[in-house]
Structure formats: C-alpha cells, structure tokens
Amino acid sequence: MTDLSDARLAKAPVSFGAFSFAFASLEAFAVTFEMIIVVLSSIIGGAAYHLFYYHTVYSNSFEGFLGIGVLAAILHMFVAKSQGLYNAQVLAGLDRRWSSLLGGWLLVVLLMTLIIFLLKVGSGVSRGSVMSFGLIGGLGLVTGRMLLQAPLQRAIDRGMLATRRAVVVGMAEELSRVRQSSLLRDFGLSEVRRAQLSGMSDDDGDRAAVASAIRAARECGADEIVLAMPWQQEPRIQFVCDLLRASPLPVRLLPDRTAERFLALRMVASGPIPTLEMQRSPLTSFERAGKRLFDIVASSGLLLLFAPLLIGTAIAIKLDSRGPVLFRQRRNGFDGKQFHILKFRSMHVLEDGDVITQARPNDPRLTGIGATLRRRSIDELPQLVNVLRGDMSLVGPRPHALAHDDKYSKLIASYAQRQHVKPGITGLAQVQGLRGATPAIEDMQLRVAHDLVYIKSWSFMLDLRILLRTIGAVLRHTGV
Q: Nearest Cα to 169, choosing from 215, 123, 109, 100?
C-alpha cells in the first residue's frame, strides 16, 4: 500500500542535482533552527511586554530573558526529539503533527513558568512577559516549520535529501515490505531501481536478477545495493552476495520481519560484543529526571495552593469523628518497594491487613464527611506529600493495597508490570473511568491493560493530558 509520503518520495528522479545535503545533518539543522527561534522569541517577547507596559524595551532584564530562552530551547529540543518531531517526513510536512508540536511547546512553557515562579528565579520576569514569550514562541515554531516544508519537499522531489542512492534486490515477500519512505526514514537511502529474485531457489533466475541489478546500478549511478531477503536463507544470501562481487558497490542486508523486531531493541555495549536489551526501563534516565523534576515543582506548588483546603479539611475531619486525620496504608511502589500512602481519613476503619474490603457506594463505614471527600477526590490530596518524598508520581498506575496486590498478581500474569514505574495519584485508567471497586476479575484486567498502555507509551504530553482530564473530572465532581 502506498501512502502520501510514498507517493511523494516515488517522484524522486534518478539523478541528483548539483547540490545535495546529508540526511543525518537534517536533524541537527532543524534542532539549531528551532533553538534560535525559541531564544529569539524569549528576547522579543520580553522586549514587547516591557515596551507595552513600561514604554522601554528592557529594564535590566535582557540577561534573564536570554537565559530563559536558552533553557526553554534545550527543554523544547528534548521534548520534540522524544516525540519524533525531527524525522525527515515530519519536517517536510508529509507526516503532520501540529498538535504534538504545540502540545510539547505548551509543556515547555508550563515547566518554565513553574521553575521561574515557584523556585523564585528570574525576579525581573513577569507573568505577562512569559505569556508573551509562550505565544510568540508557539507562533514562531509553527511558522518555522511551515517555512521548512516547501524546500524540504522540493529536496525530496529532486532526490537531494538522501545521502545515498540504492538499488534494492530481494524476494517478493520482503520487497513488498520495503517502501521508499521507510528507506529514507530509517536508512537515509533513496531507491532508484529494484530487482526481484525468483520465487524458488533458482541459480539461473538469481543470476539474471543480480545481473539486471548491477546494470541498473551502473546506469543510475547508484551508491550501493541493498538486499531484502529472509535471514534464515543464509546459503541463498551468500550466493547472491557472491554474484554481487562483480560490482564495486557496497552491499547491505536489510532486516527481515523477524530480525526487525529484535533490531528495534536497544543495543547495550557492556563488553566487546554488544547485547540486545530484551526488556528496558520504560523511562530513560533523562526522562526519569525530567518527570521527577516536574513532580517536585508541581507538587510543591499544589501543596502551597491547597494549603487552606488541607488545613480546613483536617479540622473538619477532627471535628466530625474520632480518629487520626490521616489514613496510612502500605502500598507497593516502584520495583515493589513498600511505602505508606497518605490520605485524609474518610472511614471509621483503618484497614491495612491481609483482607481489605474495597469501598462501595453508600458504604456504612464512611464518616459524616467521608463521602464528600471521596466524591470530590479531596481525600487524595495528602498524596502530594508522597509525590514530594519520591514514593509516588503525579501520574502513574494507581497503587493498590498489599492484600489486593497479592490477590491479583496470582490471577493476572502482567499485573506486576505495573510496578515498572512509580505509582501515581491519577492515571490513564482513572481518566478512562476505571476507578473504584473491582468486583469482577475483568474489571481489574481492564485497569491493568490501561496501566500497561501508559507505561509503554509514556511521554510528557501523555502526563499533561491525563492531568488536564483529571482536573476536568474533579471540577465536574465525577472524581477520577
């Protein structure tokens, strides 16, 4: 099947123009280009705000806006790179991801705002100037991408984008998987011709196909020949390679269906021979650091913001019924490490044993204000302290009581995989309405499935979307 990107890439002529640029250098150029846009947006945004309100371009704040621009540019680079926004097809507009670009930029602006105002850096920077920076930066990034699209599409049409041109030789089944767009995206190659080997292991048929490929490579001025053959047919691959020795061009073997699955894994060089990482941490060290930084800054700000509500709730609980203000219960965290989760007490009981009864509608164990606390999720607010401590994250799989972990880990094979990341106050399952009691095993299976999807597809943007949906659910008093 040919998609839009294939149709455009198929137009690439055989011969290059007088100028061509390296496929690998495209990403570096785009990163540098957008970093300049972000830094200039910070300076221009600050200058525009001061000019409008103070009738002067700057009031000794130029260095501050320059520093903010540099930090925001670095953050934007990492966020955009994690979303694949520097791929050639995305830059050329063949794969449109405007929502990802703007969503990532919004995340960067929010992070910058939290860093500036909650950590009290950049005292000369006002909220208005940051908003101006955010608007100008978003407009600048979109405009910059639009300016890049036309020349990049022309470069693709003229065959100027790929560093090397290739003749593809292979069997029908494997050739059907090799699309021009994937050659460009994954290998930096532009296909100029292809030759199909015979269906059976036929020496004469293979000789004719290889001879045709060699002639085509010579006529088209190809830079290399690539093979698309099943890896288990080692003797036939070797035979074709021996025939290709008649050409001075380098020969590469593309991954087949099986190898592609394994080669997509990360290679770890712990010795002279690299190994394949069959299971990796869902988050890289940089991603963990970024998520932790966001958790610290956001939980600190939210604790300050909700301080009056926290104090008022504590007083109301104390006046409403006998017992502690906070309910502590053991939960399993990252990698099974236990911690005590904190909640406002909403029940007369404090269960933390081998048997725990899940809360249910009109539960007689609820205190006078317990139902209100749970319905509006106010009972969850003390978990911001767990987040600040590092026991939890703002977003992640919801931790369950130890008794429930013991039960469901025996019934659901993938249950323990939820502990590959820190548990969260809210999560993907919760914003999809999967919260509360799980009377049937299917209810928990569905919740676990959503948790595993979150772990596999984690990104800053996913966290941000979940937080925004959580806020909306709480404001509608539906809980999460």
A: 215
- Cα dist from 36 to 49, 99, 122, 147, 254, whole Å: 20, 21, 21, 14, 37
Beta bridge mates, 272: none
Identity (one letter) of the amino acid at 196? Q
Structure tokens at 227: 């093979």
Provide the 3-class DSSP secondary structure of residue 296: helix
Contact 15/221 with Cβ under 8 angstroms? Answer: yes
pLDDT tens digits, residue range 3-46? 333 333 333 333 333 344 555 577 888 899 999 999 999 888 88
- Cα separation of 447 and 436, whole Å? 11
Q: What is the pTM of this model?
A: 0.53
Backbone phi, psi, residue 165, to 5° = -100, 145
Q: In Å, how far from its chain's centre is CA 427?
A: 16
Tell me the C-alpha to C-alpha distance, in Å, between residue 333 and each of 343, 396, 397, 418.
16, 10, 10, 9
The token duo for 30 is 């785009």
Structure confidence by residue, pLDDT tens digits, 339-385: 999 999 988 888 777 777 777 777 888 888 888 888 888 999 999 99
- DSSP for 11-75, please give it: T--SS--S----HHHHHHHHHHHHHHHHHHHHHHHHHHHHHHHHSSS-SS-HHHHHHHHHHHHHH
Amino acid at 2: T
Question: Is residue 76 within 8 Å of residue 34, measured between CB atoms?
Answer: yes
